[in-house]
């Protein structure tokens, strides 16, 4: 049987990461990063928000886009879950509805990279949840 | 909810909203007694008796964005479908405890699903909170404690995607040795 991962290996990995990555820079400047909030209340989770969130975390890292992906509650758009709120530095936040993995991919490629809007924007005056 | 891990994620969001700093999740599988038990405990703000008496009502929520609150009701229904039950205890200023029992062998018991992914998402989305996840089966016990993880990571954040991926594999591989 292959060796099972343990916390001891985690230490090695941490040191590797520290030597090549700019982690500190990242944590010091959250304002300059693209902020993505995934709505993760009952409605969001039941509609597949977990997969979308995992996709956004993994893919933005792979594609070299510096983001902060966090969770938020229900914004009242349960009919359009999973919803995500994307805020590009210096712009107003935008909420996208019915975000599956395909839509999330479009949002990353078109909106986050090039600023082009994609379908599914929730055009209501909403308030960001704390 | 497709599986138990999503229910757990949903319920722990309540602890997050209750501003808990420690959340404990314990899953116990006992095939002999035919019990699959999920226990969740937090040290959040807790609830008054009045609120507590209403939490299992699907038309009760503390949110202002919508008028239904289905999380606990769905989990309760899911447990009762297998002949199990859900119990919740809470004390204001102390915290909340939730115990859900399923019949292990019942065909209506949802599978556990991607519990490792759920734990890692919760941990990374709430880097200031600590989580303990214990899983007992007949073959043994696995304990994942974010305090230990953070001690090792020091100033490296649990929100780093490489770390998250590693933690997910760590939990999965260890669970596979006991499930």
From TrEMBL, chain A:
Q: Which Gene3D superfamilies match?
A: Glutaredoxin
Highest rank taxon of the organism: Bacteria
Q: Which InterPro entries match?
A: Thioredoxin-like_sf (IPR036249)
Q: What is this protein called?
A: NADP oxidoreductase
Q: Which organism is this protein's natural source?
A: Labilibaculum manganireducens
Automatic annotation (TrEMBL), chain B:
An example Pfam family from this entry, by short name, is: HATPase_c
Stated EC number for the protein is 2.7.13.3
Which superkingdom heads the taxonomic lineage of this protein's source? Bacteria
Swiss-Prot/TrEMBL keywords:
ATP-binding, Nucleotide-binding
Which SMART domains does UniProt cross-reference here? HATPase_c
Single annotated GO MF: protein histidine kinase activity
Domain Histidine kinase stretches: 1-106
Keyword Nucleotide-binding attached: yes
Respond yes or no to whether keyword Electron transport is given for this record.
no
What sections of the protein cross the membrane?
Answer: none
Q: Which reaction does it catalyse?
A: ATP + protein L-histidine = ADP + protein N-phospho-L-histidine
State what protein this is by name: histidine kinase
Species this chain originates from: Labilibaculum manganireducens
Q: Kindly list the organism's lineage.
A: Bacteria, Pseudomonadati, Bacteroidota, Bacteroidia, Marinilabiliales
């Amino acid at each position: 049987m292959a060796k099972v991962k343990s916390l001891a290996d985690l230490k090695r990995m941490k040191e590797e990461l520290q030597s090549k990555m700019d982690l500190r820079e990242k944590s010091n400047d959250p304002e300059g990063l693209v902020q993505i909030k995934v709505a993760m209340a009952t409605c969001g989770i039941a509609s597949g928000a977990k997969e979308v969130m995992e996709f956004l975390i993994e893919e933005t890292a792979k594609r070299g886009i510096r983001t902060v992906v966090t969770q938020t509650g229900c914004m009242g758009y349960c009919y359009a879950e999973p919803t995500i709120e994307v805020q590009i530095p210096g712009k107003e936040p935008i909420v996208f509805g019915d975000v599956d993995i395909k839509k999330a991919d479009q949002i990353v490629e078109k909106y986050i990279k090039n600023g082009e809007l994609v379908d599914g924007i929730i055009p209501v005056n909403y308030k960001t949840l704390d | 909810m497709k599986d138990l891990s999503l229910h757990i994620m949903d319920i722990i969001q309540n602890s997050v909203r209750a501003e808990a700093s420690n959340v404990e999740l314990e899953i116990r599988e006992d095939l002999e007694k035919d019990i699959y038990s999920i226990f969740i405990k937090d040290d959040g703000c807790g609830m008054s008796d009045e609120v507590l008496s209403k939490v299992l009502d699907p038309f009760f929520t503390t949110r202002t964005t919508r008028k239904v609150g289905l999380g606990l009701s769905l989990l309760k229904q899911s447990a009762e479908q297998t002949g199990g039950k859900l119990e919740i205890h809470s004390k204001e200023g102390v915290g909340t405890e939730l115990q859900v029992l399923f019949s292990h062998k019942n065909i209506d018991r949802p599978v556990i699903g991607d519990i490792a992914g759920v734990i890692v998402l919760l941990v990374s989305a709430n880097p200031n909170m600590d989580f303990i996840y214990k899983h007992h089966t007949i073959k043994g016990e696995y304990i994942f404690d974010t305090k230990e993880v953070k001690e090792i990571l020091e100033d490296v954040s649990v929100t780093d995607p490489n770390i998250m991926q590693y933690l997910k594999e760590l939990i999965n591989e260890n669970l596979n040795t006991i499930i």
